[in-house]
Amino acid sequence: MQPFDLVLFGATGDLAMRKLLPALYRRHLAGQIPAGSRLLGVARSELTREAWVAQVEASCAHYAGGIDSGKWAGFAAFLDYLSVDGSKPESFERLVAVLAGREDVTRVFFLSTAPALFAGICDQIGRLALATPLSRVVLEKPLGSDLTTADQINAHVGAVFAEHQIYRIDHYLGKEAVQNLIALRFGNTLFEPLWRRGRIRHVQITVAETLGVESRGAFYDQTGALRDMVQNHLLQLLCIIAMEPPISSDADAMRDEKLKVLRALRPIAGTDVLTRTVHGQYRAGASATGPVPGYLDETGVPADSDTETFVAIKAEIDTWRWAGVPFYLRTGKRLQEKVSEIVVTFDDVPHSIFGAHSGSQQPNRLRICLQPCDSITLTILAKKPGDAMKLQAVDLSLDLASSFGAQQMDAYERLLMDVVKGNLTLFMRRDELDAAWRWIDPIRDGWSQYDPRPKGYTSGTWGPAGASALIGRDGFCWNGEL
Fold first, then answer.
1. Is 171 one of the annotated active-site residues of the chain?
2. Lowest mean pLDDT among 3-7, 210-214, 351-355, 373-377
3. What's the predicted TM-score (pTM) here?
4. Contact yes or no for 453/306 (Cβ under 8 A)
5. Which candidate in 28, 171, 202, 233 is catalytic?
6. In what order do the strands lie in the sheet containing 327-332?
7. What contacts 179, CB < 8 A, 6 or more positions away?
8. Which end of the chain is less packed: N or C, by CB atoms within 10 Å?
9. What 3-state DSSP class applies to 381?
């Protein structure tokens, strides 16, 4: 790998300190930061380089599993800091001198800032001619609040960077279990004949959190669960599950197939939101640490807020492969468990040769767990020991950590290295983003017109009762509620 310059806007922010800088430190420990590389932290705070490096060290000690005293000096030498106010164009001129003479190395601009600053930052990068042919820009979610605002941001970014230089990041796609989902689908012949209508009964995708909005109330209230989680994370997972086999592992081949899925999603508009979606908002309740406040009592949240903290959706894909197979999406805060998973439930055997008293008749299920641990579990029926033909569900499990005996890369570690290497496979293309917003926007419009108030649910539960009814009307139940 060749040396690179990484310009990190928002370098004192929560994402940078908790995720990005620890991820880069771990890659340094793994020997993946080439000599001659630089990481330039950029933020409004008037800090000295030494003060910022001390913050980075404390953050890495906490979030990267500790500091290796013998290797920290090498990583610290990689770091520099510059105070730039994103709202003041003149302050960007400080970047010119710092980056001068480095036009022949890969230059990555990582925008770990509020999305409202994306356009202005890119405008200044363009004005000062800082974007070289070897430059890349990384955009964190949420990219806009709807299709119109996303188009506006993309227009500003696209005026400075070509599409192949733009990396719209979704850290869920960097998770090891998601990578293994791709390998499972397209590296094995076992599942492909079964991966379709007539063999799969339904699919569930759940991303559940036990935490509330914490200190992010003011930000979250402008976003909500539909835009914060469904528009990107859950739809990207759905695409990987549902897409056709690409012609290769090339980035555009993969993204072409994901785009087809997004365009085939059956629209949910108008009164459809009443039967195919549920949105909720958590009330006071209890978590593992004790009593917790309701959403309306969180700091920064207006007392009359109608922002949703929970969403459940019945999605349908109008293609030959998936016609009639429901995809149930669920995400929320202050739920009963912290879990991210995909559960594929297969159809029953066409004719059971076993009697009514033969034991379990549970269908085969494939569960891909993304958190709290990366694992893949296939549930099948087997005979219990003994004379009688009694069936029992048993699990064939792959625990990724124990199976491979190596420390797994964090999602941001992988994605940051992919940016440096120029690998776009796990990043959203603009037409993907547009297609996702075209499906999401009518749901928000339908809520506004026909179902404006989210349903309340007690913290520590699995969300509003309507979510169970949504899937229950089809004769199913959520995996966590089995």
1. no
2. 351-355
3. 0.92
4. yes
5. 233
6. 391-399, 375-383, 365-371, 339-346, 200-208, 327-332, 310-315, 277-283, 455-458
7. 414
8. C
9. strand
